[in-house]
Structures are given as structure tokens and as C-alpha cells.
Amino acid sequence: MHSMSPRTLPPCPSSPNCVSTQAADKAHAIDPIRYRKARAEAKEALKEVVRSLPRTKLVEEDEAYLHYEFTSLLFRFVDDVEFVFDDETKTLHFRSASRTGYGDLGVNRKRMEEIRRLVGGTL
Fold first, then answer.
1. Is residue 76 part of a domain?
2. What's the whole-model pTM score?
3. Which of 20, 37, 56, 66 could make a disulfide contact with 95, Cβ separation 3.0–4.6 Å?
4. Bridge partners of 93?
5. 6 occurs within a structural domain
6. Does a structural domain hold residue 105?
7. Closest by alpha carbon to 6, among 47, 80, 64?
8. Are residues 46 and 83 in contact, defined by beta-carbon separation less than 8 angstroms?
9. Which of 66, 69, 57 is nearest to 100 (CA)?
10. With the CA atoms of 94, 18, 79 and 76 taken in that order, what torsion angle do they form, in degrees rounded to the nearest 10?
């Protein structure tokens, strides 16, 4: 039985308001997160962390994929944050992008580094 290859994340636009572990250029690239647990457990641990963050909404989920909407407090901007679990390599890929605007003052990168810090060692 061949394993289903993990879904790829949509590429980042040229604007600097997006980071992705699958981006090739330095402006958008960010390191993926490694996980050790079984995928289902790692996913639950990740969901637990994201649930603890303010103004997040899970909009889509399948066994190896999560899509959240993060809404900013002040202007109610929505960012899309997607996670893909690649079980072959035990790698958690992700992409975080603003829906509107151009620059994001590093918000997407900061958020993902914060999530990395919060999940540190729990996956």
C-alpha cells in the first residue's frame, strides 16, 4: 500500500506577508517543526496549543492537515495558517499568510516561531 503523499501548501505570494516551510526563497522560508509522536497524537498536541491562542478558528481538518483562521485584535485582519503533517519524514510543514495588505511587520513569522516555542518537545 503506497502512502498518500502529503498535500503541498500553496506558494507564498511575492508580498512579504507570508511564511512557508515549503518556500524556496529566504524572505518567505521558515524551518518546519519535527515531531516524534504518532501523527494523531502530534496533531492533538498542536491543536491544544493553537486552541490556547486568542481569536483562532479551525476551519478545515483532515487526518494530516489543519487550517486555522487567526483574527487580529485591532483591525480584524484574518490570517490563514495551515499545517501539514508529513509522516514519512515526521515533519510538520506550515504556512501562515495574511489575506489582505502587503507587509505584515513580521507578524506571520513571529506567530509561527511562537507556536514552535509553545509546542517545543510536546510533539
1. yes
2. 0.93
3. 20
4. 84
5. no
6. yes
7. 64
8. yes
9. 69
10. 160
Lowest mean pLDDT among 38-42, 49-53, 72-76: 72-76
- The CATH number covering residue 83 comes to 3.30.310.80
Residue 92 near residue 31 (C-beta atoms within 8 A) = no
Instruction: Kindly state whether residue 23 falls inside one of the protein's structural domains.
Output: yes
Which three three-digit cell numbers place residue 46? 498542536
CA distance 19 to 30: 6
Q: Which residue type, as a one-letter code, is found at position 28?
A: H
Query: Amino acid letter at 14?
Result: S
CA distances 75 to 52, 78, 79, 80, 109, Å, are: 21, 9, 12, 15, 19
Mean pLDDT score, 65-77: 92
For residue 95, what is the enclosing H or E element? strand 91-98
Number of domains forming the structure of the chain:
1
Please, which residues bridge with residue 94 across strands? 83
Query: 102 falls in which pLDDT band (50, 70, 90)?
Result: confident
Q: How is residue 98 written as a grid cell?
A: 495574511
33 is in which domain, residue-wise? 18-119
Residue with cell 506567530: 111
